Amino acid sequence: MPRSVNHVASRARRKKILKLTKGYFGRRKNVWTVAKNTWEKGQQYAYRDRKTKKRNFRALWIMRINAAARQYGMSYSVFMGKVHKAEIGLNRKVLADLAMNNPDAFKAIVDIVK
Q: What is the pTM of this model?
């Protein structure tokens, strides 16, 4: 009896990966082994950078709050310490947005915590 091999499924598996690598440069888009390795590495980068993105945004918010707080003679750490002591329930994302887009509201928060 001849050996039974499911070529349909294995071809579909390869086609799925090759479809995902469409647009890559050179052999990365059409040679199976290269495309598979490239796609898998891309998935690793995507997983890693979803975590990194959160770090980067937090760092950006801290820089913006620091720049805005220094205009009123306070460092970031002093300002955040006073915000927590005054029990103002605004997180860094909101404070950074206020500092950038609504300086009057940020000044009101600074006046409250001083």
A: 0.80
